[in-house]
Amino acid sequence: MNAELVNMEEDKIIVPRVHRHSYLNGLRGATRSNKFRTITKVFSYLHGYTNSIKWGDYSEARATLDNHFAHKLPNK
Length: 76
Fold this sequence. Notes:
Elements: H1 2-7, H2 20-33, H3 37-52, H4 58-67
């Protein structure tokens, strides 16, 4: 997916650990039930989220991810 985004000169998508459950549920719905609504919403949200982070400055990007609890599990 990210290779295709980069090929189209779009930003990559990262899946923070805190959003992993939504991502996996979306993938399950798409592969098991041929329903793409959830994964489409998740991708759209994560693409916007990833785009909102200033990746040029590592310390700022890391601080943003820490502030958003990106490394935590959803129930933490």
